[in-house]
Specification:
CATH topology of the largest domain: Beta-lactamase
Distance between the termini: 130 Å
Helix content: 25-40%
Oligomer: single chain
CATH class of the largest domain: Alpha Beta
Number of strands: 21
CATH architecture of the largest domain: 3-Layer(aba) Sandwich
CATH superfamily of the largest domain: DD-peptidase/beta-lactamase superfamily
Shape: elongated
Number of helices: 23
């Protein structure tokens, strides 16, 4: 018995030692782990704990303003009053929305949207019910706030364009962040309500205008509700930018184009490349896009045959017609094929092989030289020159004067036009170039395409002594004047040959037989030179021509485009202007009078002599809105 008792005692002692050792081991492991977490990893877990109770949120910056060269605002930020609702504070969200609907206009879509968002978000998250409230609506809500638990008024910003369609294509508009923007990796793109530039200057200078976001550290409780703000780093506002355009001249230009169905115009400085007006008609109201464009209105706008969303001034591509004849004449002079006195006889047509190419004047112009051929726009003279020049040489001179390629103006909507060559046709169409195509190209028809911006630049380079000016729109950013070249490369052509071309352009307007004599500026010191152009949209057949068929007999969208390029004053050019009237018929009848009016107005305002105003004084007069001014 005693032996059994001693055996049991020994067995218990062994078990006790084993259990004790196991417990000691476990305690040692736990102690070591605790020491590791507290000493070695303490700072890491402290940071994680802080992140659980401190949220960092981004703060949206104010978007920079867009101003004209005198500091007149073209795009600004207005106050945007929004009504906000916090579901958990309403008692019953649907009842609260129903009460709110009696005070301000709320559609069923608005209500459904808020209810859907409420189901997807925590009850304490504020929801936007409606924005862009009128002051009367804000007043109604404020007065009734005691009866609207959970409802409040929030003040934000909304982009506003004071001149509506006048600057729509130039300034552009902002829109909601797209999927591509989100995929860019910029965290700022995820800010609620952020708007980014979609077209025009808004898009071109997006980085400058957007600014940089700020941050706010806020303390939150266990369920994520904000308790208090701990620290704030304010956002950096976007930079204000000044464009080179003059608001008064821009307004007048847009109004003048509005007398036509579809038209565009560019006015620029022939020595500096400064763009003073850039307009396209028809236009649109960019404010519609900042406030949310209804689907039916977007459909109506995008299906409009007038294409109001297209910036024709930099993106419209047209055959240059007879405005190209200056290039053909200059090429012939440079290649030694003619001089100012070289005369050809125009019987009204030009035969080449089995083909006959007609002059616009059925009876012909008789004997013409370099000056009269340009001023009277004799086609036959250029037909003869083209057969000796060749398309590749024509293309080389056209390229030097700004045709057939992008000029680098700061708008993404700019298109390159087209100046064909033998190689181009072989590569793009798979056919050999034909001599007859060079004849057609000599008067700006066939494959050649140009934009109004290119035509204004071509004119500037022809009359400024042959310097390769390039157009630009940005005058200043962030209070600092933008540096642009003061001098430009000299195009390798003889000044004497440019003088001959310019004399022909002067005679086009000032000579009694010139095609634009009826659109001359009567004031001698403001007189202009220029060149008419009419580009075919649909060819008139020989039978139609013999029957006396006219362009105005065609449906509107089959009629010729009307063009005119001009400069003033003709004695010492400072401003160049190009106008294209789509399906306007004759350049002398439709486009030349517009250029006359625009160049007259440009010289009256004379923006080239006005200093750049980076900061606009509050006392500075605002130009009259389009509906308040007159032509």
């Amino acid at each position: 018995m005693k032996k059994d008792e001693e055996r049991r005692k020994k067995s218990f002692t062994r078990r006790a030692l084993f259990v004790g050792a196991l417990q000691g081991t476990i305690l040692g492991v736990l102690g070591g782990r605790l020491a590791w977490l507290q000493l070695a990893q303490g700072q890491r877990y402290k940071t994680l704990a802080d992140n659980n109770r401190i949220n960092v949120k981004m703060l949206a910056p104010s978007r920079g303003r867009i101003l004209d060269r005198a500091g007149v605002p073209l795009a600004i930020n207005d106050q945007n009053f929004r009504v906000i609702i916090i579901p958990e504070q309403t008692g019953n969200l649907e009842t609260a929305l129903s009460r709110l609907q009696k005070l301000v206009e709320l559609s069923q879509n608005d209500i459904r949207r808020v209810l859907t968002q409420a189901r997807r978000n925590p009850a304490f998250v504020p929801l936007e019910v409606r924005d862009n409230l009128k002051w009367e609506d804000v007043s109604k809500i404020e007065v009734n706030l005691p009866d609207l638990p959970g409802v409040s008024i929030d003040v934000g910003q909304i982009r506003t364009y004071p001149y509506n369609d006048v600057t729509a294509h130039l300034v552009g508009y902002v829109g909601a962040v797209s999927r591509a923007d989100l995929d860019s990796g910029d965290p700022m793109m995820r800010l609620p309500g952020l708007r980014v530039g979609r077209t025009g200057a808004e898009r071109a200078f997006e980085t400058l205008l957007r600014g940089k976001s700020g941050t706010a550290q806020v303390e939150v409780n266990a369920v994520g509700r904000e308790v208090r703000e701990l620290r704030r780093q304010p956002p950096h506002e976007g930079a204000d930018i000044n464009l080179t355009v003059d608001a008064d001249l821009q307004i007048y230009t847009q109004q003048r184009l509005a007398t036509e169905r579809c038209a565009s115009a560019v006015i620029m400085d022939v020595h500096k490349g400064t763009v003073y007006a850039l307009a396209s008609h028809p236009g649109f109201d960019p404010n519609l896009f900042t406030r949310g464009l209804p689907a039916e209105q977007w459909e109506k706008m995008s299906s409009d045959p007038g294409l109001p969303l297209n910036n024709r001034a930099v993106g419209g591509q047209y055959p240059p017609g007879s405005t190209f004849k200056m290039i053909t004449l200059l090429a012939a002079l440079e290649e030694g094929l003619v001089n100012r006195n070289t005369r050809y006889f125009c019987p009204g047509h030009y035969d080449f092989g089995d083909d006959r190419f007609h002059c616009w004047r059925r009876g012909g112009h008789g004997h013409v030289n370099a000056i009269t051929a340009l001023s009277e726009s004799c086609d036959v003279y250029y037909y003869k020159l083209a057969t000796e020049i060749g398309i590749n040489k024509l293309a080389a001179y056209a390229t030097m004067f700004g045709l057939g390629h992008r000029l680098g103006v700061e708008l993404d909507e700019e298109r390159p036009g087209l100046m064909p060559t033998r190689e181009w046709k072989r590569g793009h169409i798979g056919q050999a170039w034909q001599p007859g195509e060079t004849i057609v190209a000599s008067i700006g028809q066939g494959y050649i395409l140009s934009t109004p911006l290119q035509l204004a630049t071509m004119t500037a380079r022809l009359v400024n002594g042959g310097y390769a000016v390039t157009p630009h729109l940005l005058a200043a950013a962030g209070g600092q004047k933008t540096v642009h070249p003061e001098t430009f490369p000299k195009i390798p052509v003889k000044s004497a040959h440019l003088d001959i071309v310019m004399q022909g352009m002067n005679e086009t307007v000032l000579g009694r037989r010139g095609t634009a004599y009826g659109s001359r500026i009567e004031t001698e010191s403001m007189g202009m030179g220029g060149k008419t152009g009419t580009s075919q949209v649909r060819r008139i057949t020989r039978q139609q021509r013999e029957e006396g068929y006219r362009g105005e007999d065609l449906p509107w969208n089959h009629r010729h485009h009307a063009l005119f390029v001009g400069y003033a004053p003709y004695q010492n050019p400072r401003y160049s202007c190009a106008v294209v009237v789509e399906h306007g018929g004759s350049g002398s009848a439709a486009a030349a009078p517009i250029v006359r009016d625009l160049l007259t107005r440009a010289q009256e305002i004379d923006p080239a002599s006005q200093p750049l105003v980076i900061e606009r004084s509050e006392a500075a007069p605002m130009p009259a809105r389009p509906e308040e001014s007159s032509l």
